[in-house]
């Protein structure tokens, strides 16, 4: 069974750095895309970026370009979403989701990582 | 890239059918058969309900169906049940902007 398991809840202060993870089980990591989605409190879903794990293809939403870094360690089937300097406005739930190469739908999704940034 | 347009809310009584629309442009919904629909219950991760406009993943009830006409895709839920009360989002491949996918604004389905 394909499954994505995300790292746990984070509480940080403005200006701090953060790296959250998304580990994949049950499939060959390199044949898939991984996407990161933000959901701010009470709001809808927003694509942050997607990465093809078979090569270096990495696509950010213009809204998130330069604000976050998406990466992956294929040796441990894990993708990451990273901030160098958090803001209060980064408070949100973050989901990873996967799509097999050649398809355009994302399934399954991780359980979500809640991030709170507050002084 | 602006979000695809969905009605903010749709409601129906148990057993009824409801339809949620998802309107985009020829660069996304209208240009590709790459519309998917996700159900999200409060506090839960989104779940894929329909892919490639009208296909149901294994395990999804056949009460859920999808279609598309021009730049508008639709999700129909027939035989509405209390467990269908959730937020629903459409998603489409797009050539307008990276990362080449765009979500809809989301629709809250209420079972009266």
Summarize the structure.
The complex is a heterodimer of chains A (119) and B (112). Chain A contains no helices and ten strands. With 119 residues, chain A is mostly beta strands.
List segments of chain B where confidence is low: pLDDT < 50 over at least 5 consecutive residues.
none
Mean pLDDT of chain A: 95
The fraction of residues in strands of chain A falls at over 45%
Strand content of chain B: 35-45%
Q: How would you describe the oligomerization state of the chains in this entry? A: heterodimer
Strand order of the largest sheet of chain A: 2-10-9-4-5-6
What is the CATH topology descriptor of chain B? Immunoglobulin-like
Number of helices of chain A: 0
Question: Would you kindly provide a written description of the structure presented here, covering whatever features stand out?
Answer:
The complex is a heterodimer of chains A (119) and B (112). In chain A, strands 2-10-9-4-5-6 form a six-stranded mixed β-sheet, with no helix packed on it. Chain A has a four-stranded antiparallel β-sheet with strand order 1-3-8-7, with no helix packed on it. Helix content of chain A is 0%, strand content 50%. Chain A has one domain: Immunoglobulins (Immunoglobulin-like), CATH 2.60.40.10. Chain A is mostly beta strands and 119 residues long. Chain B has one domain (9-111): Immunoglobulin-like (Sandwich), CATH 2.60.40. In chain B, the strands form two sheets. In chain B, strands 1, 3, 4, 7, 8 and 9 form a six-stranded mixed β-sheet that branches. A three-stranded antiparallel β-sheet of chain B has the order 2-6-5, with no helix packed on it. Chain B is globular, with a radius of gyration of 13 Å. Chain B starts with 8 loop residues before the first strand and ends with a strand. The relative contact order of chain B is 0.34. Classes of the chains: A mainly beta (119), B mainly beta (112). The interface between A and B is medium-sized, with 25 and 27 residues.
């Amino acid at each position: 069974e394909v499954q994505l398991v995300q790292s746990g809840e984070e509480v940080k202060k403005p200006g701090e750095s953060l790296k959250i993870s998304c580990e994949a089980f049950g499939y060959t990591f390199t044949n898939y895309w991984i996407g990161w989605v933000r959901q701010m409190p009470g709001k809808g879903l927003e694509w942050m970026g997607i990465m093809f794990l078979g090569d270096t293809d990495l696509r950010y939403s213009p809204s998130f370009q330069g604000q976050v870094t998406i990466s992956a360690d294929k040796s441990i089937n894990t993708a990451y979403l990273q901030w160098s300097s958090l803001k209060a406005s980064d408070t949100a739930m973050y989901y990873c989701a996967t799509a097999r190469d050649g398809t355009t739908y994302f399934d399954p999704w991780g359980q979500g990582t809640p991030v709170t940034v507050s002084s | 890239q602006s979000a695809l347009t969905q009605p903010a809310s749709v409601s129906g009584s148990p057993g009824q059918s409801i339809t949620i629309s998802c309107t985009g442009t020829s660069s996304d919904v209208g240009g590709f058969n790459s519309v998917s629909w996700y159900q999200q219950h409060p506090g839960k991760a989104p779940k894929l309900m329909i892919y490639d406009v009208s296909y149901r993943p294994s395990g999804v009830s056949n009460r859920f169906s999808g279609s598309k006409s021009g730049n508008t895709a639709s999700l129909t839920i027939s035989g509405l049940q209390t467990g269908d009360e959730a937020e629903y989002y459409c998603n489409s491949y797009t050539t307008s902007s990276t990362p080449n996918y765009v979500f809809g604004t989301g629709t809250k389905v209420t079972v009266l």
